[in-house]
Amino acid sequence: MAERLTTQRGFWTLGSLLPRLMLFCFLLDLLLRFIPLDALTFRAWEAVLRHYPNVQGPFIPNKHYHRDDSYGSAASIGNLPALRRYRTADFTTDAYGFHDPPALAQPNPLGILIGDSFAVGSELPEDRTLTAQLTRFSGSYFYNAGGPQPLRLRSVQSVARRIGLQRGLVIYEFLETHSLDKPPSSTPDGGHGWGQTTFLRLLGTKWSDRLRTPLNELHESPLQALSVKIEKKLQNNILLPNSFAAFAVQKNLRNGVPMVFLPHEFTFPADPAQTAARWGSYFAWYSAELRKDGLDFVVVIIPSRFSIYGPFLNPPQETPASPAVHAALVADLQLAGVPVISLLPRYTRDAALLFPKPAYLYYTDDTHWNACGTAVAASEILLHISPDAWSSFGRTPPSHVPEGAEVLNENSCKKDGATR
Amino acid sequence: MLFNSLIFLFVFLPVTYVVFWRLRSKNHRYIWLTAASYVFYGTWNYKFCALMAFSTIVSYAAGLGMLRSASPHRRKLFLALPITVDLLLLGFFKYFNFTLSSFAEVSSWFHLPIHPPELNIILPVGISFYTFHTITYMVDAYRGVITPTRNFWEFSCYVSLFSQLVAGPIVRFRQVETDLENLDHADRTRWLDRGWSFFAIGMLKKVLIADTIAAVINPLWNDPAHLSTATAWLCVLGYTYQIYFDFSGYSDMAVGLGYLFGIRLPQNFNSPYKALNISDFWRRWHISLSSCLRDYLYIPLGGSRASQPWLVYRNLLITMLLGGLWHGANWTFVFWGGYHGALLCLYRLFGTQWDRLPLLVQRVATFFLVTISWIFFRAENFTVAAAVLRQMFSWSAGVAPPGFLGLLLALFLAALVAHLAPNTFELKHEWKPWTVALIGLGYAAALVAIAGGHPSPFLYFQF
């Protein structure tokens, strides 16, 4: 009895309890990292992304994510529950870790789409991603190889070989605000910093692959995600001010609808000509390398949401930097002989036509395009492919590509909220 | 690296702690603590580790020089030279741009437009603190108060010890000399509970009280001209408690960490908001700084035993003005120091009458005077300070700020602790199981707050 009391006294001291508490938290955190994140996420991205992919694609292979009450990342980042637009999220990956639902896959693909989260379309219904819309309008299958960053050249070549694409098109989705970034070096892929890359290479393929699995598991902390959730609940502006609001900017459209932006959406290069020249030479190299493999290359420049909806804000905000960026990029790429499509003119026109409905090309609570945005983009891309190009791919051109009002009247572009 | 960050709590501290107690020899422990402290410091900016190492080597060499030399001239040289080097470094990194811009400002008053170049100087975190460590070491060695150590690792451990490296308390060598000397005989369990108790209380003060207050009032300070009268008062009162709980929380954590490694660090706060007068306040607030200013500046200037009464006031003012400037390169800090200097002079003049007031009146009046001083300490410039004062003392209505409920709760708790509860050095740190459980719960809540948000830096990191 006396011994038990001593033990009890020993435990109920701070010198004993607090280190144990920390050890418990540490071990719990470690264990929870091996459990899927799905339950703690509001959308697919965090649940499916692998930071150290050991397959070709950036996502967990053969994964299906489903959530009925998903909402936009801008509303989440700014902790603005009132501005969430709830929608159903489905995200299915193929065996190689790309967002290509096997149910939608077809043999004999015509092209590969590479790019960032816009290309992935994780917030869109799976049959309304850009590749799905391209496939729907053209009748030829396009493979979605989007990821957090556009694939490096070597990976694109490898994907092309794997899916049996010998004559076809590689579409590079390029968001205008990415012109601020430095182009990746013209070398085979890395994906991580040089230190990590070197380390993983030194390990050799076998051990590097073995190491990537635990690294992926350990990367995200569910306990930390849970803490953030608790913190966001407490920061309701009554008990505590919402400090997360600083990471998002709420603006109202002139019809009174709120739109949540992220600060980077307002950032444009100070010298569009200089940034365009940098990217121009990168794309010229990329295009030339793909041509050696018999693949055509086209760059699609997407305007940011602010570029399109700045003039619709209350008060209106002009975005002269955006046309300058597009013009400089188009001029430089054309000079380098790289086919380029700027979506700015079409988006500007269609956004104005949709606004009275009201309907939009982007989500109001997320930086990304919605199903209507991808439909318009797919139509614009296909309209730019010449009949000669179709025959060089060994295909017949689609009998009809919807354009103009036809696209804007279809289901994808009905009243706001149509993306569910 | 911050004490209230996950990397510190779950990686740095456990690794440093376990390896430290596995080592047996004194030198190994010095070396390990030095290495760990440099890692701790280097995570902020590794380039400035060289600056700290340079300052350490210079001061250590000066100490050795004094030890080996009997000549008064040489000893003076060993004192003056490294102190000059240290002060030049501090002056360059902390005050260079400030001096140039002040010079330009003054010259513009005389219609002599000068546009000095503004250098892109990064202020090394903690430079004000470790410079004080090395200077007090050399002065004490010169005065014969301490015998300079021959052991380089012991000295480098003293200068760079991570627990008090970046925000104090300012530890004099003589205060930790015995514990450093006996580091190989330190008993791991002797101060374990006390150390964790200090650390946990400091964490709760910082994360649950100071950070909650800061979350509400920081946005308000950005736009003081539009504050309502009530919000302006809440803002100032909030900062008064925020700075106390932030800085004393850090000091408690530092003391707690010291105990965990067998090194007792001195008390830095002794319930300053219970002070009965401004002189009493300065015996209770940032004790390690105020005692350094007293011993290394005020007394050498002549202190209160100066030949002429006006010289005492001069000494007080100089000491407090420089004390203000030490906090940062901004005239608002100088004003804050001058304000306190003036209050100390006034207390010296009218202290007898002040002391006859009822104790509660003395306490409330002192708290009010100190609260007003924090406006100048917090404000980025005099325009902001004037705007806050104007809003406080002229009526304007307004709505409650976001997070008002949390602010009221935090202020209530802060006031209870600051004015009525014993401070961490008055506590016995022998807790009943239910108190241990309660502190454990609070600590867990603090961990959730840390994991859920970005760790907020301690206010005194900038000084």
Describe the 3D structure:
The complex is a heterodimer of chains A (420) and B (463). Chain A has one domain: SGNH hydrolase (Rossmann fold, 3-Layer(aba) Sandwich). Chain A is 42% helix and 11% strand. Chain A is built from 16 helices and nine strands. In chain A, the strands form three sheets. A five-stranded parallel beta sheet of chain A has the order 4-3-5-8-9, sandwiched between helices. In chain A, strands 1-2 form a two-stranded antiparallel ribbon. In chain A, helix 6 (130-138) crosses helix 14 and helix 10 (272-292) runs parallel beside helix 12 (321-335). By secondary structure, chain B is mainly α. Chain B has two domains: 6-185, no CATH class; 192-462, no CATH class. Chain B contains 17 helices and no strands. The model of chain B has no long low-confidence stretch (mean pLDDT 92). Chain A binds chain B through residues 8-9, 12-19, 21-22, 25-26, 221, 223-224, 227-232, 235, 237-243, and chain B through 6, 9-10, 14, 189, 192-197, 199-200, 212, 215-216, 219, 401-406, 429, 431, 433, 436-437, 439-440, 443-444, 447-453.
Describe the structure using short key phrases.
heterodimer; A: 420 residues; alpha/beta; Rossmann fold; two-stranded antiparallel ribbon; 9 strands; 42% helix; globular; disordered N terminus; B: 463 residues; mainly alpha; 70% helix; 0% strand
Kindly state the mean pLDDT of chain B as a whole number? 92
Q: Give the overall form of chain B.
A: globular
Oligomeric grouping of the chains: heterodimer
Query: How many β-strands of chain A, per DSSP?
Result: 9
The structural domain count of chain B equals: 2
What is the compact description of this entry?
The complex is a heterodimer of chains A (420) and B (463). By secondary structure, chain A is α/β, with parallel strands linked by helices. Helix content of chain A is 42%, strand content 11%.
Layout of SSEs?
The complex is a heterodimer of chains A (420) and B (463).
Chain A: H1 2-11, H2 14-32, H3 44-48, E1 64-70, H4 73-77, E2 87-92, E3 111-114, H5 117-120, H6 130-138, E4 142-144, H7 153-163, E5 168-175, H8 194-219, H9 222-234, E6 249-252, E7 258-261, H10 272-292, E8 295-302, H11 305-309, H12 321-335, E9 340-342, H13 344-354, H14 371-384, H15 387-392, H16 405-408
Parallel strand pairs in A: 3-4, 3-5, 5-8, 8-9
Antiparallel strand pairs in A: 1-2, 6-7
Chain B: H1 6-22, H2 26-45, H3 49-68, H4 72-109, H5 127-143, H6 152-160, H7 173-181, H8 192-221, H9 229-260, H10 278-284, H11 287-301, H12 309-327, H13 331-355, H14 359-378, H15 382-393, H16 404-419, H17 433-452
